[in-house]
Amino acid sequence: xxxxxxxxxxxxxxxxxxxxxxxxxxxxxxxxxxxxxxxxxxxxxxxxxxxxxxxxxxxxxxxxxxxxxxxxxxxxxxxxxxxxxxxxxxxxxxxxxxxxxxxxxxxxxxxxxxxxxxxxxxxxxxxxxxxxxxxxxx
Length: 138
Prior knowledge:
alpha+beta; 5 strands; two-stranded antiparallel sheet; elongated; 3 helices; three-stranded antiparallel β-sheet
């Protein structure tokens, strides 16, 4: 049995901090005579977690909310759905913890500006050529 959920290289969440709930599935295995609780919901309380650093907690609260959940009900067995739910939970947490790269503003090159202006002149010339001729020839 897994004792910790590996989110990324720097973060591992103990399974004790994740609440796993099982219920009847609407998918495969949810309708047979000996009904099993094969649907699994993994719930992670961000505020109550002791494994998160303060910066990680703030980022998760801001981007994913105070409670992160993942549900799996595709497989027939509860064990496989548990694995799927934990994988999805780890993916959601990892996505919320990603720090966006800092954008460095750039300027268009001189050649790019020249190409843009040349293209504008060509389009303007084409539109001028479409106009009805003025009455000069009469």
